[in-house]
Fold each of these.
Amino acid sequence: MGKLALKDLNPQQRAAVTAPDGPALVLAGPGSGKTRVLTYRVAWLTLERSVPPGQVMAVTFTNKAAREMRERLQHLLGHARAGSLTLGTFHATCARILRREAKVAGIPRDYVIFDADDQRTLVRQVLRELDIDVKQYRPTAVHGAISRAKNELIPPEAYQPSSYFGEIVRRVYERYQERLRANGGLDFDDLLVETVRLFREHPEVLGRYQERYLHALVDEFQDTNMAQYILLRQLAARHRNLFAVADEDQSIYRWRGADYRNITRLREDYPDLAVYLLEQNYRSTQTILDAAQAIIRRNPNRTEKRLFTRRGTGLKVTVHEAYDQDEEARFVVNTIAELTLQGKARPGECAVMYRTNAQSRALEEAFLRAGLPYRLVGATRFYARREIKDLIAFLRLIHNPTDATSLTRIINIPPRGIGKRTLLALEEAARARGVPLWQIVEEVGTHQDTPLLGGRAQGAVTRLYRMVRGWIEAREGATVVQLMDQVLAETGYEAYLRDGTEEGDDRWNNVQELRAVAAEYAGLTLTDFLADVALVSDVDNLADGVDAPTLLTLHSAKGLEFPVVFITGLEEGLLPHSRSLDDPESLAEERRLMYVGITRARDRLYLTYAFRRVRYATSEPNAPSRFLEALPPHLTEGSRIRSGKRRVEQAIAWTTSWTPTATPSFTTGDRVMHRVFGRGVVLESQARGDDEEVTVAFETAGLKRIMGSYLTPAD
Ligand code: ATP
Ligand code: MG
């Protein structure tokens, strides 16, 4: 069929790809080629139906998914055509629309995007301002409630509290929104809300976009929220070419306002909706699919879908019971090392998943001890690091000096003699006169005789003002990297960070890393750079091209696939999560989450749990997850779930093997060899479970603590 190889698709997929104009929904299970169908349809529309690429919009769930889709389309369409597609996450797409229509939308063109951290900081500030106890009303919880309201398109004035907590939320929501506006800021949710509002209030603007986008396509439709759904409906109202791809069983973002009932809404709103079903799974072995179905089948109110594969039965699912989280982590690392050594998988083909971010700690440690590299998604988000936030605050200030959050962040970083009291006086003056904090700084900085501050403080503020003023003036003719360099040089930031400790060097490396990110794009404007930075979600920390296992939460694994998958922490209270145990709706979501995790695996699946796990500083025995019990025994191998006496006996056996019984095989002075670190000398050795922990002075790599099983004697 012409330029596009439709032979790469099965008949059902082909029918969906070449669907006639009008609303369409592809409903299918994991690994059935939904994302592939969506990508091919974009290519088909452009190549076979001659739709100009500039008139096609495709929305995906994460930046990573959007990038992958763009790459595939570059392959199918060539760079030029792929470049003119509107392709991105909902948030990125809305951010661009708002930037373009800022004037009509009544928001500053240079608006700042408040990321998750900024949002929490602002909520905390508001709680303090309103004299609300932050211990009793956690900023995260309050912000979560505000976010849900926004995603339902409920503005502060229409918020109907149904409890005392709700009343607190209402008050904070109102003030939070005022503060955002005063800072020239929008939070993530505002990007959607403001776009919907813009389209509602300005039909002529909406008309232009409706005219432009002949086709709108959306992946992972089951995880859209109300605001996103309305937005799609607005955009598709004229041409009605809405193409959605979904799997109800993979809806895992209810807590963020996602609503899989949007699938029902779509059917109701478009009675002529053409529905396509895909049945063949191309990703996993039949054993993995059967395991996944054994879990999801327990959810009520779902349409049973049969998943079949031509990939054969495959290997059994390995279930492993560990003594505690450290032993569990060692099992994961050892298994990956073994698979790699035996040539069965490359490290980069393995993924380790968990329910909560905190679980990554033990895993990371095990990888570090083994001297094996890994990639971590989430937890220590690069953009959440202090030094990165500082540097971005400087840039945001250059971009928009009225951004008081950024200004307060860096006003005394590196320390420049603007203490707490000075800042308070400045803030007080700004509040009293209802002007931005920056204006007060400007007044102090230009009228040397302002009586507001004492002489020394006034000098310090003046120096800061002149420095920032200089950057703002330099902005026009400078690249982002040049601006960054100027900021770093004039603030003396390097000397401030590099305090001679290893941590200081690491932090400075992070700064260099951010500089490298900015240097990657020639012609990048400061505005675009800041928008990109604000929009990188956790999953974007996945450094492509490094051959190392990926550590990630089940939530961020959505849409991805790996030959080898470990799902760890299969314990009651963890997976399913304790918060879900007495709410059937939440429990159903936990099952879907488990289902998403299992169906990421192509060939090998390992499910692990620990007998004891340290949580909140206490160590408690755990019951294995009900999800393990739901698996038919013929699909699994390895430790079966023990109960009663057997578990107790096993626990005693573990505890005794924990005490150093085996004599360490390495002693002080031994010469050893490590695959990555090379030669070294043993300084100290201590038994750890069935292994030993050895401190080694390596010739080039310095001092490291390594598990003995990763060392070989050297002469
Ligand atoms: P998920 O629900 O997990 O997002 P999906 O339905 O989007 O899954 P894809 O990621 O599009 O599925 O496809 C799963 C895998 O199967 C991919 O590796 C894809 O390249 C492959 N695949 C899909 N269709 C075919 C086909 N017709 N022939 C060969 N491989 C295919
Ligand atoms: Mg997909």
Note: The two ends are 65 Å apart (CA to CA).
Amino acid sequence: MRFNSISPQATSEVASKILDTLKPNSKATVLALSGDLGAGKTTLTKGFANALGILDIVNSPTFNILKKYSVPDNKLFKHLVHIDAYRLANSHDLISIGFSDLIRDPSNLIIIEWPERVVEILPPETLNIQINHIDIDTREIILRD
Ligand code: ADP
Ligand code: MG
């Protein structure tokens, strides 16, 4: 799937379209968001939070590495886990903050910015999403298998 987004709002709306395609899984659903700084990874994550009805403000968790939000109501997912791997040295850092347990829980939707940092511990079913900066307001969002 490929989307052309002309605004941050449009990028948020792409999240709800992606969410509609997700099916129940026996483990957590992991979305790996790739793209340069300012591409729109956090903006897309806010779109997922919004589509799930999360009212908390979702910001870049760069200084916390990981933030877990509760999803209200009984949706496909009970938690949104937002990880920003930018400052991680390697995969061990993510394991040390509980990643192994998080990926075992099918009620978690896990979104990872800068997945390249931890690629060796991502499950094979990870859905890769690439965001390309086209111009100041335009982004191309591509879902890869
Ligand atoms: P990242 O997390 O990839 O570093 P952010 O989502 O934090 O990126 O920032 C994206 C920036 O680009 C924001 O300032 C946002 O307002 C701007 N922007 C402009 N057009 C778009 C668009 N179509 N989609 C997403 N962000 C956009
Ligand atoms: Mg970000």
Note: The pocket of adenosine-5'-diphosphate (ligand 1) is lined by residues 5-8, 10-11, 35, 37-43, 60, 113, 137-139 (CB under 6 Å).
